[in-house]
Amino acid sequence: MGARKRVVSSETSDAQNLKTGEKSTKSANSREDEEFKLAPPKSSQIFAIFAIFAIPYSSLFFVHYKIEEELKRLILINALLSLAGFFVTLFMIPVASRFVLRRNLFGYDINKKGTAQGSIKVPESLGIVVGIVFLVLAILFQHFNFTADSNWLVEYNAALASICFMILLGFVDDVLDIPWRVKLLLPSFTALPLLMAYAGHTTIVIPKPLIRYVGLEVLDLGWIYKLYMGMLAVFCTNSINIHAGINGLEVGQTIVIACAILIHNVMQIGASTDPEYKQAHAFSIYLVQPLLATSLALLSYNCETLLIFFAPQGLNFLLSLPQLSGYVHCPRHRLPRFDPQTRLLTGTNDGTLVNLSLRLLGRMSEKSLCIFLLAFQYNYY
What we know:
It catalyses: a di-trans,poly-cis-dolichyl phosphate + UDP-N-acetyl-alpha-D-glucosamine = an N-acetyl-alpha-D-glucosaminyl-diphospho-di-trans,poly-cis-dolichol + UMP. One of its GO terms (biological process) is dolichol-linked oligosaccharide biosynthetic process. It is a single chain. The protein is mainly alpha-helical. Helices cover 66% and strands 4% of the residues. The protein has one domain (66-380). It has helices spanning 11-35, 43-64, 69-102, 127-145, 153-176, 180-183, 186-190, 192-197, 208-214, 224-242, 249-271, 275-300, 311-324, 353-361, 366-380, and strands spanning 106-107, 122-123, 203-205, 218-220, 337-339, 344-346. The protein is globular, with a radius of gyration of 24 Å. Mean pLDDT is 73; it is low at 1-20, 22-28 and 304-319.
């Protein structure tokens, strides 16, 4: 990367050096742009993934359930905005990739070490593109849905504030490399706007297998409910980060979870007659549809070896506990071992679901392993 030369001899020499520095910087940037070739998005694969979700979702939404016209109109407007966000994200990712590479925000694919692909610079901090587009979509949707006296406006803005803080945290982590012990706690602070604005019920539904032991179907937690929600926010954010290590797995989890949430919300809206209950699930749809669209755009650049919830997450968390608690040595990267000759991954003794799958099923390619793990999560839902 070119750097500007600064020589303090005279104004003329300074101006000449400044021009020379600008030229060298531009030429260096142009060379980097020529060297950096982002693989084209996998449009056909993304369309197939979307069809798997869209068919049951559309069937429930348009055919199986009778949803009020006004509510249906708002959900469709949100879906159209999300579709626009998909194409904007698809366009912005290559643009942002060049900028982060110029600022040396890149890494190398550890699972390709020893091959030509292992020496390619992989741009980091591209989640900022997805986050910004998502926030813009969510803010624009307020024009169509919320008024000054809307019941859900405070919660909606609080959710956007929490998401904004979380995006900032992710970008800061990429730049400053925050230690894990700090990273585990920071999501609890980012969830504060949402927790402080929450004024709803404080009850939880007891899972059916535990009802005979608890003696209750619904338990009122009182003020502990907000503490529980804060801990849940910490778990949800870090569970995605921990169950990772291969290309496409993290964003793939997000897509699987988002699809499950959307289908669940439509089923609850269609089966309920309580207007407030329907609005609560519609509130979730308004936030998750843009998340799904922008995540699909990111996956299109990341669904193979390219440049760039809770059974699987819970199982991975349990497998990770001995290393996370310090009883067993925990390396910085708990990734499987890559063989450059066979180009296959081999499981290590580190306690992650990725390594456990490889130890049980044998050596696999990165793509096959990612598909298996996402299929496992999809089948659970």
